[in-house]
Each structure stands twice: as structure tokens, then as C-alpha cells.
Amino acid sequence: MMAKMMRHRSLALAGAAAVLLIAGLWLSFHRSSHQGDLGGGVLFEDLAPALGNISEIRLSKGDGSRTTLRKQSGGWSVVEREYPADTGRVRDLALSLARMKIIEHKTSDPASYPKLGVEAPDAPAAASTLVEVVAGDKTWALIVGKNAEGRAIYVRKPKEAASALAEPAVMVEPDPKRWVDRQLVDVAGAKVHDIAVKPANGPAYLLTRAKRDDTDLVLSPVPKGRTAVSSMSLNSQADSLTALNFDDMRPAPAAAAPGTDLATVRLFDGQVFEIAGRKEADKAFISITAHRDAALAAQFPELAGAKPAEKPAMPATPAAPAAAAPAGAAPAAPPAPAPPAAPAVPAHPASVALAADQTTERLAARAKGLEFEIPLYKYESLFRRLDDMLEPKTPPATKAPAAPKSGS
Q: What is the C-alpha separation between 128 and 67, in angstroms, rounded?
């Protein structure tokens, strides 16, 4: 009886194991098939080979917001702003999409799409963003949803039901201002020769550094009885154009508005920047034009630094004496003479000068007819008032009251 019971138990366990094996095989096949529907481990297996041929990337949401990144002869541009795009961000997006891999398969139920943000981006309330990458006659489309812990993101191909968690996470906000190249000017303060400021309210003034190797700017005029603030404070104004990035842009007004501040910044290399600015509530806007002053550049020529001394050559290791040739052998051929050294060519004077900063040309191609919103602290650093450049007035000494006369 006991042996019979053991036999039944063994058969039951074997049957259960077979059921589990079959279920595992089915689940594995189902997952493999599901993964194949999404293109395998990589979402777009054929995108990486086409990266060099991408001509356009489109980002759009159901609320109508849209950004079109288009490759042109001069580089990438944001079509909606008619302004150069941040090439680094465009490249990062394309590379991230090309290497995006599935981490985990998610729902295929449309009712659950909004939880992941992968619903069709055709309604104003939809959280999803449609990304379309165009190369030649092929377009790769992806619905990008909510972020998952910063490193991954929920996605779905528009023509497929299955969604997935994929990495890396990508930023696909379709706001054009997020994609423009926001660097306006980046000039080191040490390159500034002078800054002439004419505030909308208050007297004009000039900050000057007479020679290239001068460290400090000098303020003029300094009103009688007043003293300029410290050199450190004056010099900080020359850094106003260092890493000057804008937050947004818009067409410039046809004529200067009342209350416009003016500043002209001249560099030792002859570049001249003319800046007009104004405030609107808690925002600051500037327009900027640039040109080159050849006479100024000639007045302050900049030559390349002396060539660093070359390291002395290591002494040659003496060659080991040649072994004696065997008797009757032909003598070894003498070493071939070294080719003659090429004659030194005197450098052309123009080749001695350092490469010119191309900020002027960059602005000429980008800034015409535009007004840029810049950080308020940058604006206030550039358009300081003369009184801000002076030490506070010393209050007049108060006279002590006269002592009362004796007997009064």
C-alpha cells in the first residue's frame, strides 16, 4: 500500500513539473514574441546606421505645442524660432533614441496608457509627446511618456499596442526656447578695453583699461569730492559679457522704447558690441549689434606667446660595436646618409597673430532684429548707475553746540 501511494505521489509531482515546464516555455515564447513586436532589445535597430542622414526631428503634444529641429547647410535650427539650435542637445537626443533599449514590457491596455503617459498625443490633456525622426524617406516615430526615477522612461510605438519601460531617459519637451542655442556672448573680462554706459536715468560714465596688460579698469568721470569703489568692484563689470546666455527671444521693437539703457563694450582685438536694454516688470531684455574697429585692433596688436622651450633631446644610446665580419665576407654597406633637413620658412606676420575671436560674426548672423531676455543679475551688472560705482558720500561733520557763556 505504501509503495502504491509513493508511486501515485511521484506521478503527481512529475505531472506538476511538466505543467510548470510547459507554462515556462509558453511564457518565454510569449515574452520573446512580445519583445520582437517592439523591435527586440533596441527600440529602433535601424536608426543607428542612419544617424548621419537625419534631416529633421519633430516634437509635438496634443495641446498644440511643437518644436521642429531641421538640419540645414549651416547646421541645426529651430524652425519655429528661425534660430540656430543647440547642436549638442540635438545630437544627444538622436544618439539616445538610437541606443534606447527595453528594460521591461508594460501594458497593452489603452485604458492604462494614461498612467504611463503613453496615450495618443491627440488631446490637450494628454501627457505624451510624439517624437518623429526623419532620415531620407523613412520616419521613426515614438510616443514618449512619463519619466521613471530619472534613468528610464515609458514609451510606445504609435502603431503598436504594447508599451515599455526603456532607457536612457530623454528630454523631449516641445517648447522651442528649450532647443535654441542660448549662448549669446562669452567674452573674458580681461579682453575688455573700455565700457561706455549711458543709463536711461543718470549721468553717463566710462570704464577704461589703457593697456592689454593692465589689470584694473579706471572710472571717469569721478565727481568732485567722491571716490570710486574698489578695483574689484569696477572690474566685475567687464565680466558682464562672460557666459552671457539668454532665457528667451522675441522680435526687437522697431524703435528704441523710452527708458532704454545703452552700453558700448570695446575689446582690445577691435570687436565692438553696442547693447540697448530695458526692463519690463521683473524681466530684462537687450538687443545687441556688433562690428569690428580695425583702428582699435591695430592700436593693440596681440602676438602669440613665445614658443615654449623644447625639452632637451635625450642623449643617444651608444650603438653596440658591430660584430666582426667573418673572414672572407663582404664588408657591410655604410649607413645611408640622412636626408637633408627642410629649410626653415619664415613665418608670415599674419600667422603670428592669435586666431581672432569670431563673436562679432556670430552675432551678425544671429542677433539682427531680435531682443533677448537675459537674467536680471546680468542686466544689472552691465547697466550699473554711476552712483553705484562710487563710495557712499561722507556725511558732513556736525558742529558741537557752542558752550554757554559764563554768567549768562
A: 14
Nearest partner of 223 among 104, 62, 393, judged by Cα? 393
Range list of β-strands (E), 202-360: 205-208, 218-220, 244-245, 248-251, 261-267, 271-280, 283-292
CA Rg, the chain, in Å? 36
Cell of 307: 614658443
Determine how many CB atoms are found less than 10 A away from the CB of residue 222: 15
CA atoms of 228 and 224, how far apart (whole Å): 11
Question: Could you read off the pLDDT of 250-289 as tens digits, one per residue?
Answer: 999 888 778 899 999 999 999 999 999 999 999 999 999 9
CA pair distance 66, 250, nearest whole angstrom: 17
* pLDDT the model gives residue 127: 96
What is the structure's pLDDT at 363? 93
Residue 353 and residue 347: Cα distance in Å, rounded? Answer: 11
In 3D, which of 164, 161, 127, 121 has the Cα closest to residue 146? Answer: 127
pTM for the whole thing? 0.71
Q: What's the rounded Cα separation, in Å, for the pair 75 and 95?
A: 17
Tens of pLDDT, residues 188-199: 999 999 999 999
